[in-house]
Amino acid sequence: MAMPSRADCESLDARDPLGRLIGEFAAGEPGWLYFDANSIGAMPRAAQGALGRIADEWRRLRRRGWKDSDWLDAPVRLGNKLAPIIGAEPGSVVVCDSTSVNIYKAVRMALALRPGRKTVVAEAGAFPTDLYVAEAAAPVLKRVDSLTGGGQTLGSVPSDTAAVLVTHTDYRSAYRHDLAALCRAAHERGALVVCDASHSAGAVEVGLAASGADFGVGCGYKYLCGGPGAPAWLYVAPRHQSAAPVIPGWMGHADPMAMSPDYKPAPGAKRHLAGTPPVAGNALMEAALDLWRDIDPQAAFAKHAALGDLLIRLVEQQCPDLSPASPHDPARRGGFVSFRHRDASAFADALEAAKVVASYRAPDVVRFGLSPLYHRYADIWALGERLRQLETVRMQ
Ligand SMILES: Cc1ncc(COP(=O)(O)O)c(C=O)c1O
Fold it and tell me: DSSP assignment, residue 176?
């Protein structure tokens, strides 16, 4: 297959219906290529205005801001803006807390919904916080090598499994689980599914409702571009909405300002809020979510798949020292593409020196996080060029 040229990539950009979004993002440092969408997404131009608005409201309104502005509604409002991006039903998502805290809530809710069952199952290679939190939240955490090992989905889960905690996209290889198949297998065994879609949401299809997932969590600062330390999200399937909240805080109360000594949960997902929302963080997150207002998520996912395919092709054709560690099939690949290199740590340093921002994961992987909102096909071509030049220099 012929190598795509820069002109080919520019012509793809010219026809890209999402191309107009690139102008909605603030330019990064001149000369640098940014491919760390899996760590922290680029800044929407609207973020500055959003922060300015909060500062102005704080200055003018002070305490009245809680009543006269939209600060308190943000967790539910933002949840509804996020829902179509992760394939969730309206009213089933709240934006709040960190992913770690939301994992705790989801795992404890799952255990409460399966009385008599004590075990939570997760892959030993799951993201570390998932394992630490699940170990603290569950009476028993069973670590398995693979949820789909030996070609059998959930072949080895114990019969008292209350929940399967799945890192939807693996944080080193970008392998993306077939969530629907996992949910089917878990439900056949009477277990619920908690899905950590941090490395999927905003880049690839998660399809929480269509897959039958019971709970979902994920980061706001990666592909969703909510900014440093952005609030995370929590999905609770509508059939579980009446579950008692794990942290029954005042912000999940039916009427927080009534100051009742007795807890009465708010209807819907709002009951899973605990404390005061991070108003400035939510404003930044909303500026990012509003970029999706007129986007068909499927078009964004298709573009993301094409960007990843292009990168793999460019690397395979011209960088013999790098071999794909991510699936070639975009349906099984999450938000980034990773490659193995025999000296990946040194290669990551060389990338930095060549003004390419990517990330290294021990022992042998470099990751390139791709965004369907702010990456052009020509950016991928430029990355391919820089990788090729790096390999040429290193071989001399
Ligand atoms: C898959 C995954 N889950 C959870 C987290 C941690 O999220 P938080 O810091 O919001 O708890 C990360 C952070 O990178 C992650 O990659």
Answer: B
Q: Is 167 in the pocket of ligand 1 (CB under 6 A)?
A: yes
Q: Which residue CA neighbors atom 15 of ligand 1 most closely?
A: 198
For residue 1, pLDDT over 80 is answered with no
Per DSSP, the chain holds a count of helices (H) and strands (E) of: 12, 13
Spacing, Cα 18 to ligand 1 middle (Å):
28
- Residue 167's SS3 state is strand
Between the CA of 332 and the centroid of ligand 1 the distance, in Å, is 20
Kindly report the pTM of this predicted structure: 0.97
Q: Read off the pLDDT band of 75 (50, 70, 90).
A: very high
What angle (nearest 5°) sits at the alpha carbon of residue 322, between those of residues 320 and 326? 135
Interval 203-244: pLDDT, tens: 999 999 999 999 999 999 999 999 999 999 999 999 999 999
Ligand 1, atom nearest to 167 Cα: 1
Q: Which residues are catalytically annotated?
A: 127, 196, 221-222, 367
**What phi and psi values does residue 310 have, to the nearest 5 degrees?**
-60, -45
